[in-house]
Amino acid sequence: MISAELIMSDNCEFDFSDVDCDFQTKFAKFYKVHNNDGNTSIIKVFKKEYCDFFSEHKYNLLKNIRSELMISILSINNKINNQYVEYEYFESMTLKEWLHSDCIITKSLLINVIKDMAEIIDKFHQNDLVHLDIVGNFLINTDGKIKLNDYDYVEELGGSKKGRVDLHSFFELVYRMILFVHKKKSTRTINIKFNDTNIDHSSCKKFISSLDLQ
After folding, report:
1. Distance of CA 29 to the CA centre of its chain
2. Nearest in space to 137 (alpha carbons), one of 122, 160, 117
3. In this protein, which residues make up the domain named Protein kinase (predicted)?
4. CA torsion sign, 49 to 58 to 92 to 126?
5. DSSP label at residue 70
6. What pLDDT does 172 receive?
7. What is the location of CATH 1.10.510.10 in the chain?
8. How far apart are CA 42 and CA 62, in angstroms?
9. Are the beta carbons of 61 and 34 closer than 8 angstroms?
10. Contacts 24+ apart (CB under 8 A), 61-69
11. DSSP summary character for residue 198
């Protein structure tokens, strides 16, 4: 399929009728766009039945989180029949692709990746937001730089315990990553002790400190 490479106009209006999308899901189609300033971005165009997934309110909440560990939202358009979100372009792969790739994953690199994952999750929670869909939405490049992606299900915490969803997903994801890497390196397995009844915002650090990666 030919990559959809469009020139962004000043008012961020697009016509996608005559181009092929790079990728699509149940909810949206994705286009790779070259901007007038020479930069590249990704446009996520929601299908009509899912246009209420990304509101102006959610966009404003996410703008308050300033971190290199998340894919930045550059603009949104909520006009009828032309609703889309523009994201920064990050040359990367999924965590699963990274683990199965030829990239050299050292102990220190793995720990740094895990710490970055924990940091951005904590950052969301500190800003009273919960992601709710982190599994499959961490992107990583060949240098081990990781970013959290896709904010369709983001909600305000508002005193609820929904943050546990992110933390449980994080623990399971990290555990699987470590076991995979150690199996790949033919080294011994890891014993991780963690009491999930005490989950709080410091749990990510407790979890990391409990890892035995010798």
Report:
1. 17
2. 117
3. 16-214
4. negative
5. B
6. 85
7. 93-209
8. 17
9. no
10. 61/127, 61/129, 61/154, 61/156, 62/129, 62/151, 62/154, 64/127, 65/123, 65/124, 65/127, 65/129, 67/119, 67/120, 67/123, 68/147, 69/116, 69/119, 69/120, 69/123, 69/146, 69/147, 69/148
11. G
Cβ contact 185:160 at 8 Å: no
**Residue 214, CA distances (Å) to 58, 111, 118, 144, 179 in order:** 42, 12, 21, 20, 13
Domain spanning 6-88: which superfamily? Phosphorylase Kinase; domain 1 (3.30.200.20)
Q: Do 94 and 114 form a contact (C-beta atoms < 8 A)?
A: no
Q: Please tell me the distance from the alpha carbon of residue 81 to that of residue 83, in angstroms, as a whole number.
A: 6
pLDDT digits (tens, 9 = 90+) for 157-172: 988 888 889 988 998 8
- The model's confidence at residue 67, banded by pLDDT at 50, 70 and 90, is very high
- The two tokens of residue 8 are 């962004």
**Residue pLDDT, tens place only, 176-188:** 888 887 776 544 4
Please give the structure tokens belonging to residue 176: 């699987």
Domain 93-209 classification at class level: mainly alpha
Residues of the chain with CATH 3.30.200.20: 6-88
Q: What is the DSSP letter of 163?
A: H
